[in-house]
Design a protein that fits this description.
This protein is an alpha+beta fold. It has 2 domains: 255 residues, CorA soluble domain-like (Beta Polymerase, domain 2); 48 residues, no CATH class. Helices cover 58% and strands 14% of the residues. The protein is built from 9 helices and 9 strands. The protein has a 7-stranded mixed sheet. The protein has a two-stranded antiparallel sheet with strand order 8-9. A hairpin with a 2-residue loop joins strand 4 and strand 5. Helix 4 crosses helix 5, helix 6 packs antiparallel against helix 7 and helix 8 packs antiparallel against helix 9. The chain is rod-shaped.
Length: 325
Amino acid sequence: MAARMIIAWMPSERGLTKFDGPIVDSIPVQAVWLDLVDITRDEEILVEKLMGIDIPTRAEMQEIEVSSRLYRQGPVSYMTATHLIKTETENPETSAVTFILCRDRLVTLRYAEPWSFRTFAQRAGKSGAVTAEHVFVHLMEITVERLADLLELVSIELEHLSQQIFRRRQGDVEVDLQRAIFKIGTCGNIGGKVRESLLDKNRVVTFSEQATQDWMSPDARSRLKAAQHDIQSLSDHATFTASKINFLLDATLGLISMEQNRIIKIFSIAAVIFMPPTLVASIYGMNFKRGMHELEWKYGYEFALGLILLSVIITLWFFKRKKWL
């Protein structure tokens, strides 16, 4: 969880610099980006008072209706998007981020630290973003860049899993199909969250273009168009990745089922093979003296063993002829 704070970013010669002083009674006039990180209710009221805008509550940010996530109040555009966090782990999570965009200032409200915000903060001094619209565009571009990286990692992992699953053996080691299912599930979890985030970003970019068409610069509009095209391409790739995940999952489950059937088949054949010898042994194990001349025969024991062996050979020959083995 990020520390509670209100961070103001000021334009500089090549980008943005962070305002060092505390924001208590006023907001720096030149600040183009106000980043609200896990703020308290008192800080929320302070920003509303200083800027004259409404700050959505955390509960309002969680609403899924499009009308609650994308709307305008006068010249101010409110856009809430789902961002991925903990993308460095195998179990990324989602967190809502609200962008409040007006002509001269961008306000972001968040309760976590997405990778895009951390990365942009590191690049801000040399980003060339000195206006609110360019800060917004940069954040969108970096977010899309991160989603593309995640999709690429998922694709690489799926290709590796595909080779393992269908090759089945690596040297003398057989692939653990159950472990492969867990890895496929992890890829599916990440891929699903990426698809959800891409859909969300496409809505935000489309809405921002329409909401700011009367004042957004041609350069920023052109970059948003490029970001939208990238989002569409990544969405198509995410759809293909999802279909590959389903294919690998079905294939792995099928191979596990085949392996289980093979094991059951072996036990079934073994049981059938030993039925005739068991019958022979049972007959000569009854120990009825009368009528069983082999019991007093010198070679009766060897004769019984021979019958047992012969019954096994005949059964195996029959299975081979039927191609059951």
